[in-house]
Prior knowledge:
The protein is of the alpha/beta class. 27% of the residues lie in helices and 22% in strands. 43% of the residues are buried.
Amino acid sequence: MTPFDSVAIVDWSGGNDTGARPRRDAIWLGLARAGEAQRPPPRYLRNRLEAEETLETLIESERTAGRRLLIGFDFPFGFPAGFAAALTGRADTLAVWHWLEARIEDSPRANNRFALAGAINRALGGGRGPFWGNGRPALDVPGLPRTKADYANPFPERRAAERIARGSFTCWQLAGAGAVGSQVLMGLPVLERLRRRFAPDVAVWPFQPLAGAPVIFAEIWPTLIDGAVKRATARGGIRDAHQVDLLAVALARLPRGDLIAMLDCDAAEEGWIMGLGHEKKLEQAAAQHGTDLRPPPLRDDCFALPAGVDWTPVDDALALLRDRLHPVVATTSAPLGKALGRILAQDVTARRANPPQPNSAVDGYGFAHSALGGGDQLLPLLPGRAAAGVPFDGTVPAGHALRVLTGAALPEGVDTVILQEDVTASDTQIAFRPGIRPGANTRRAGEDVEPGQTILAAGRRLTPADLALASATGLADLPLRQRLRVAVISTGDELIEPGDTPAPGQIFDANRPMLLGLAAEFGFETLDLGRIPDNRDTLRAAFDRGAREADVILTSGGASAGDEDHVSALLNAAGAMAEWRIAVKPGRPLALGLWNDTPVFGLPGNPVAALVCTLIFARPAMGLLAGAGWHEPQGFDLPAAFSKTKKPGRREYLRARMRDGRAEVFPSEGSGRISGLSWAEGLVELPDGAARITPGTPVRYLPFSGFL
Ligand code: AMP
Ligand code: MG
């Protein structure tokens, strides 16, 4: 456990929110929670007002959830030694916070930071320092030097931490690249207000004791993980967003001991940069597989069934799996071209509109609709054309037309396109009938997808069309789950490999190729752990390897409670197994358990029961473990092509297929009949209660493809 449950990182801004569009270098907020694979995408906050409100909400929600929160800010919390006492009469950094909060006036479009800095300079430095830099060319501020030419600083230029942090800027500089001073003047008042609002819950590091405080503010410097940020930015995205995201992840991931070492600091007046001197560890944590974050393990009792129930109904068993299982695979990211069939780890939003600009839907001629008269039309044709990827460089005057091709961006002056088949054209003019409507044959920018719109939801298994959508809307990398690794073991002394010469009583292993194939079809990575004789030590070694190298273990055979049922015996001995007696046919008891935190599905040995139990129970469970959410098999009702009388008590699955719009079932229900499995293309599901089916009775048909 880390000393914090949640880590938020804020990339601050000292500037104003002027102009119509949000600025790129506004404020970014990254959030990661220790042990949680899912994390929200970094948030863009366009000004300090929005940031203050967002932080307030965050502190409230984390406090309510009982999560201890560290918030790291990327600007100095303190000034070089001596400044606090000179300004406030006390060598106390938090007194400076208080002092500034009382005097800084801030709104999204204007603030008094330059004037206040000038006043401080006049009071403490004869009007020549410590602050310098004035971002507004038109307005001189008394006491605030514009440049360092006429500058004198009565205090040290840098704090001790900044003398070590190579490339850091000083907190005295208010304008130009690296105007950290402006961030400090505009940031500390916000922190002071938050601190006051949530007193006594907020502790400011390193000025206050942290023990027991549910919220900690710390100064942090994203440059400490510059390598990881550079690599992430090279793959796409906004640098500031990567900074807050990766730093939050790194801190959420670091072992407790490392964090405690980072927080061990007594630089009482000037403050310190958290993580300074520990860059290697931070970088490593930030860079681990790009963005991977390992989720917490499953709980020991995740497979426990309600006590006292003899045969658990299928729906109850499924509800229990659905409740207690969660993703066990880490998140990562991959280029779009490698993402087919993978599971999305987060919602994905469009970076760009589709279409990105208004364009023509046909080959034809474009013009301004408003300039058309009544009656037949005759428009002079401009030389040149607009084609997809080769826009027309110029404006089409009203009353003129231009040749445009499908996909071409509409030139300036064109809002309507007439199909080439509907015009008579010469080299210099076109003629056409009246009646075309304004905007005809054009596509609006964003008519399909607007930027920022969620295009694909977390948990989705990516299809070829999803990749088209992601690519069209400007995405290059996608947040993915790592593939679920599924280990498969067959057990039984009687089993031999295909190609072996059978001795009396031996049978070929049918389940392993089937289960490996199913897992692969579900989109998982497979690990073949072979055929294990009915021997506990050999099986234990196979379980150990499965737990090391895979996320789930599927076994078949040996799952009952007999002498040779070593799967259940081993899991039982490990103390985290439940014997699942489920009211289902076919299906003997299943043995569900954890082996070193790795879930084991002990399936029946019978191939028919093994397949049905895999599809009905293991498939949706593995979907959850893989991060795809709960997966209901997709099916539909069909008229039966068979007759059957079913007793109440157990849900039944029959090997079935659809022919001529009706559901046929395999003539024999024997659970050793592998030929029927191969014959079938799906299952007919009969309800738990009694049923009397005659030809034409509607039955539920679940095609095998509906389980994928
Ligand atoms: P068990 O659950 O181990 O008692 O096995 C039940 C039945 O399934 C026995 O008849 C086994 O021989 C058969 N069986 C178990 N594993 C396999 C397998 N991998 N391939 C084919 N049949 C199997
Ligand atoms: Mg056996």
